Amino acid sequence: xxxxxxxxxxxxxxxxxxxxxxxxxxxxxxxxxxxxxxxxxxxxxxxxxxxxxxxxxxxxxxxxxxxxxxxxxxxxxxxxxxxxxxxxxxxxxxxxxxxxxxxxxxxxxxxxxxxxxxxxxxxxxxxxxxxxxxxxxxxxxxxxxxxxxxxxxxxxxxxxxxxxxxxxxxxxxxxxxxxxxxxxxxxxxxxxxxxxxxxxxxxxxxxxxxxxxxxxxxxxxxxxxxxxxxxxxxxxxxxxxxxxxxxxxxxxxxxxxxxxxxxxxxxxxxxxxxxxxxxxxxxxxxxxxxxxxxxxxxxxxxxxxxxxxxxxxxxxxxxxxxxxxxxxxxxxxxxxxxxxxxxxxxxxxxxxxxxxxxxxxxxxxxxxxxxxxxxxxxxxxxxxxxxxxxxxxxxxxxxxxxxxxxxxxxxxxxxxxxxxxxxxxxxxxxxxxxxxxxxxxxxxxxxxxxxxxxxxxxxxxxxxxxxxxxxxxxxxxxxxxxxxxxxxxxxxxxxxxxxxxxxxxxxxxxxxxxxxxxxxxxxxxxxxxxxxxxxxxxxxxxxxxxxxxxxxxxxxxxxxxxxxxxxxxxxxxxxxxxxxxxxxxxxxxxxxxxxxxxxxxxxxxx
Length: 606
Ligand code: M6R
Description:
The longest helix has 22 residues, at about 425-445. Helix 9 (about 300-315) runs parallel beside helix 13 (about 400-420) and helix 15 packs across helix 19. The chain is an alpha/beta fold. About 55% of the residues are buried. The strands form 5 sheets. An 8-stranded antiparallel sheet has the order 3-2-4-1-10-9-11-15, with helices on one face. A 7-stranded antiparallel sheet has the order 5-6-7-8-12-13-14, with helices on one face. The protein is globular. It has 3 domains: about 5-235, Aminohydrolase, N-terminal nucleophile (Ntn) domain (Glutamine Phosphoribosylpyrophosphate, subunit 1, domain 1); about 240-435, Glucose-6-phosphate isomerase like protein, domain 1 (Rossmann fold), CATH 3.40.50.10490; about 445-590, Rossmann fold. The structure holds 5-amino-5-deoxy-1-O-phosphono-D-mannitol (M6R). 5-amino-5-deoxy-1-O-phosphono-D-mannitol binds next to helix 9. 5-amino-5-deoxy-1-O-phosphono-D-mannitol (M6R) binds near residues 348, 351 and 397.
């Protein structure tokens, strides 16, 4: 995720900015840059250390802004790296977040003669500020007026050459922290980067702006109403701050699910028409109208997301869809018939098996698509078209927020393809409404964390688990079992609940608990019968059910309720309690859940 760091004071800003960027490295990034009004702009692709060779004694000034970029719009490159300047390089900005209406703004600015050199959504901010700056001659006024034109999220810092001692910052949806020093002030996207200099911080709220100079700081709203805020003292160490106060990145990333759901759908839902806008697929829209078959592929959690996608796409597009493990698909020949599109799902975009499957299917002339989180990764580059997740970097090895975003992007893809292939406007509008409501519902799911922790404590002593689900939640049974295996090393098996009687039921006894995923959906009664079968054999059952389901309470040993949603979206809400369950069991068993043994974040070997 992008990182912002800025400084204004009396010392040489360049080593301070460089150190700030180094501290922000853990957030994940692909390029970086610094602007010091008296010295100019430096940018690098790759690691922050790439800036070092240019930071000589003549790269000097007492203020500056800097940025680590994690690509969302446009590939990692020097042009796309921040800081971004206006037409005359008078002012520069660094930005975190997503400008939803950037295309609209870009078109308007280009028509007026602005030269926009990057592919980013962020650069337009520099040019709108420029327009207002030319008129108002005040950077503060220019920033607030410009932001009124922006739809989306931002944390920004702006600095101009004509007034190098004033940094203007603002926040809407992306964090901004002010560091209050003695005659020096800092701005950052998280407190870890300012901790080396001061423990006094102020977290800006949405809709707040601030001006920092060596003489002090001022906080105000977008409408220029003064805000009085007292700095708070942080006594966390840097590691704690990086994890946002959570013990592990895994928990932090699970807790980010509501934001991830908002970010992955941002600017993509056309709710009133019951449609989705997926810019990355525009170029292949013609081909997608005539597609005869879809093969979804991936590994591990990405493959399970693909299985959910299969159910969604088949239900609403009428196109035959299959999901195949990439490690198997690469060696199959039968699927390579004309009119087939292959959709690869990968968080990292570098998984060797998924990449090989894509290369193999491409060799047969098939249309290849990607759902990838890491922008410009190999799979993103090698597929014909695709959709980015916008989930931000995932540091914990176990996929949590990335998996949630994969499911949501598949729901968006279902809308996109469905409306081309006979999905009614009414069905589209219903699904779109369901997607739009997900972040709020996920907030409610996360409120159950305490209860899930208590349940995890009760179950953490068992050494075997069965996870059961059906239809949309059949793959979530696999994913729940995988998560538990990965972070707690407990033996767990995922099964389609209807399959239980064909074998696994033999294992059930009082020492072999079952986790059942039972939303109030079209197979609810079937799931209830399967749970009865487990109970009849003395098996303990922990169920995830829909809020308001009184019947289940009487049947199972433990239950966690999740809000009701569109049937196709139930896997999204059901998966997070299972992530939390695995997390708590893993931690209770004393493991480092961020770095499970024998696992790598990105599996680049076959
Ligand atoms: O980066 P990818 O999404 O391609 O990775 C695929 C799998 O390796 C990954 O999902 C793996 O199963 C995770 N450890 C699951 O938590």
